[in-house]
Structure prediction request, 1329 residues.
Amino acid sequence: MAHVPAQAGRKRTNAEALHDPEVSPHKRVKLADVGELDVAEDVKQFLSGTSLMHKVWEEACLEVLDQEHAPVISVNQVRLREVLHKRMRQEKDRKEFLKSLLPFFLKEPVLRLCLRPMDDAGKLTAFPNSSIVRLFLSVDAIQARVMQQLIEVLPDYVNDDDGLTQNLPFEDDIPRVILSQFRWLDRVVEGVELSRRLFELFHICPHRLKKEIISMIPEIVDDSGHEIVVKELLDIVEQQEHEYLTTTFDALGNLSLAPEYQPTVLDSILKALRRAKLSDLPVIVRYILQTATPEDAKKVVGILRTDLRFDSVEVDCEESNQGAHEALVVDTLQSGIRFHLHFVKTFLAEIQACPDARDHTFLDLWFLVIIYSIGNYEKQIQQLLKKKVTKGHFTKGLLKGALGGHASALKQLFPDLLRFAGFLVSSSSPEMRSFGSEMYHLCFENFEDPFHRQELLGAIMAHVGSGSPGEVDTALGQLLRLSTNHHAVMVKYVSFINCMLDYLVRYSTEQARLAYEIFSLLCFNEEGEEAMGSSELLIIIRKQLANPEKTYRQLGIIGSVRVIGRLGSIVRGEEIGDGDFEIIEGLLENVVQHSRKDSGSLAFFMDELGKIVPNIKENRRLVLHICQHFAGTFREKFLQSADDALQDTIWCEVDESIGTMIEIWQYASSTESREQEALALMHPQFRLLRSCEIILHDGSLGDLEAILLAPLDLCSRETLEGIASESQAVRNSLCTALHHGISWMRELLSAFSPDQQFRSVLLKRTEQLADMEQQMENALTHAPMFIPPGATTATSAAAAKKARKAPSLSLKPNLDLIKDSFRELDVNYCTLLAIPEGEEYSPLKVSVLHYLLLSLSSKAHQVFVKSTPFRVRDASLCSPTTFIADILPVLRSLPKHIESLMEEVSPEVDFEMAEDDPTDRELVGPALQCALNLIAAVLNAHIFHSSDAHLGMFKNVLAAIAGEEGDSTVSNLRSIAFKSFSEYVEKVPDPSTTHALVRVLSSILPRQEKGKGPQRLSDLHRMLSEMCFRLLGKDWGNRIKTEQIVYFLELHVKYARNASEVVHNLCTHVLPSATAGESLPEYTSITSKVVPMCLKVLFAEVSTRAADLGRDGRDGATTTTQIHQRTKQFGALMDLTRRVGQKKTVLHVALRQGRLFLVEFLRLIKYLGRTWTDTSYQILRDFRHGSSIMQTLCEHAKVTKDVSMAKVIPKVKQDLESLLYQIQAILKENRIEPQIGVRIHKDLEGNPISSQMPASDSDDESDEEESGEGSGGEENDDSDDERQERDAMRATPVQRFFPAKQRAKRTEEEEQAEDQEDEEEDEEEEEEE
Prediction:
């Protein structure tokens, strides 16, 4: 070959240096001189000879480059290609050439030479590094035969021990080099045959070659052979060839399939998902999401939810980074869902359709977070999440499985996880806040990177500063949990949360306790070393204590007590350390010093100190110090000899032999402020003394037991009876004494209630307490300006004064206003209602029973009801499960108490007309109501109806109120309890107690419609409906309230045997008669004043019944008949609304509740079009009547300018417009031409009005329009096309599909007057602007 000299001034390339004879060390040998080379004899025979093959070599000027290790063929590849194409045209030459060439492939030296990249004499060509074999394959005439020969010889070079050849260089691995020659060819002549031979070779090849074969198949076969190749690849998948799944799915992704063949491929791939390795999952999931059609979305989502589980997937033994593969799966899911949005609705629908917590997997949460990260579905996911968490379908165990151990996989979704948790914590639902808090906690535990933890704490701190009480409580509770469980880690992040100390004044008392508890944990560790920020914390506490404002001083007291509790709970040896004790002494001295002149702050400090004493019981030295310095003076101040008091001032005697008494009147009547302030310390000081005595006496109260029996030196009964004639100062002293006496009795009951040996004394004390509160109620009527000790601020005192000036605000205004200032009763006190084990039931006094039930009902209200006027200190921290577990013995005794009260019931006694001094008989009704309300509150607890997690506790509650002790089913317990309580309905004479009893009966039954549960429960539902029907027909007079009537009506309609007939009767007979002032005998209680609320119940019932129609997928005449009934009922309700529609409440109910029916009717229209009959046409005509009235109501609201309905009317009109188009389409589908008419705008009385302006008060215009309606209609119909078009635009969409009977025509004068009014209105609007 000619030498190619390098250009001047240009650097010589490696190729040029190689072929330069002056530089290259390799010798270029021509074919004639091949015999001189030191190569194998087979190679010499291959290169030199007289056959056609050798003639081709000579024509192409083939040479050999003599390298050190192996010879290399050097030839001009373009020329060789041309020679081969020219020679191979003749079949004779082709056969001769192949006959000479192919035997040499059996000889390894020749095969290696042919597979080795050729030298092209330094020329730049389009085929770099091409071997001579590849040149043969580029000739179509010999391609197939050469490929066949290479495949046949390939097994001869396969080593049986794959491990020996695993790490061979590519150029030395002949099988791999042979397979590489088949790739990236310009054209494959017989691709199908070649693929068939390669699949045959696949089964005998080692592992390293199988992946090569699978990956090259899509490059070989053309479109006609894709189906055959796919079958072979699916056979590999079905044969559980796990090692080749990734390569197989890559190959499948490069093949085109016929549409009818795609489902089979998808099914095979979905089956392979269950046994795939973790490293293969990203490829499999990506292929599934890319190839699945919208029709396959539901099946694909179902398989992904059930079979894509990382806990059960096979993991390679050599695989060390499992999180990286999980991260790839998450990234694949995220990108696949983002670019194939039809999966989003399917995922959400599948997750929403799961009826139980057991049907969910942790991947459901992954899917929701992934969809949440897309950014367009936040609202839908939030609604779904709220539903699932509230019902208990998403549990904390499921959340732990989703986040635990998957931090690497979810790292890219960490910001979305924080947004997810943030939405949950900011919710008003306690269940959602708890779920979001758990999500924050698990993220903190699993994401150990400092960056992630800083971001998480920042998100929690945003909740702390939100201002929402529930959100702040949850965030502070989570910080406290993290500080307790991860103390060593949280200490590093104190600087991220210390900003809370600047905003403590905005927190409630409980929130301030939590905040200081967090800082005391982080600033003082158990090793006795002061952590970062401890000095700053103590400085802030001292500043707050020194602040003259009481709010800041109380914050300092809370901080001091929390630090004392933290240091006192650290156990290092038997006693507290000297350093810690010095800090505690300093804090105690500061509190006393700055609170010395404020008894309220000192009392608050003792209360706070009493709460943390049980936590420091291991440090008896500290407990003794607190008892001696703060509680030891109680006996000296308040325990006096009973001989020194007058008999008239002794109250609450239990045992006359007791020689001591509690002194109250001396301090309450004193004019010195110091003695009055000392009285405020009596109750917290006793609580602190009790807590210390229990620890110091190993659980015994010691000599404090005598205090339970000690009477009170309260006030003179004679003076109290003549309070009306006393001065204002004496009245206030009497009220103060009574107030402290009540608080003292409550404190005693809370202190001794856990001990059953004092039960008889405590019951006696309860009776005395009830009498004392009644005396307080009487005294307050003569002292309306009394400010209770609990009114610690000027604002609350002023509010109390203002409220007491209006005694008509409530039934018992005075006592109710100051009840919050009394000492709170513990929940354990109410366990006095429980019958002791082994004792027979003995009826309690009605006053005692009423007081106990009233207290317990109040606590149940605080626990189970979300919105309450104030928070009880004990119950606000008590979870529903804990509360129910504590009162379960009481629930077992309630049936006995109710039975005892029912024996006292007398029809002659009106429970609701009790006098100021009620007797025991007059308290029977209120006591019964308290007992029944308590049972209803427990049975309606949301924890029982949100999930089955508390089914065992619910069963225990049912067994308790049913009086059953053996093992029984829930349905059987419901039946027993229902029958036992239903016997009392006819015995109760007043509506309030009856209402409470019906609430219990409704709570016992499951929250489902009749027919969906056991037949026995369906019968009970029907019994409840009949019972409410009888109650509605009973003449209660003016005693029954509207909400009670509505409740009876709702249950009567909901559980009736034939609800449609009942609703029809109410719509057509009962309510119209009541509107006219004539109540029917069977519905005596339904009068005109309750018609609006009854309409709301009926509208809701009709909409609910319509929502259940047509959802079973079955078409039938029965469903069509039911739709017709609902439509008639809707029309009857709207017609009734028009009669009484002058009231705003009626209009609001009709529009809001009627729109719900419109939404359901939009769905039912499709059903009617699918099952079209004559009845369907009649349904549309009947629907016209109700929809017309709805449009009239909208116009009435527009005329009267009712702003309150401005949000509803556009939605109603939009639904009516949608109904118009749906009806038109259905009529056309069934070959009925829609007849569009113009609807007249009318008011509620039927008078035509303008569509643009409010109607005038003149009756002349109405008369003219009515006369035009009857006489000039035909003339004006055909007068002007433009007027018809304008009238059609003005017409409402409700009745365009039916012709109007008559059309009101307006004269030109009327139109001009209307236009003038429009102009004047526009001018007025411009002037206003």
Residues 888 and 957 are 7 Å apart (CA to CA).
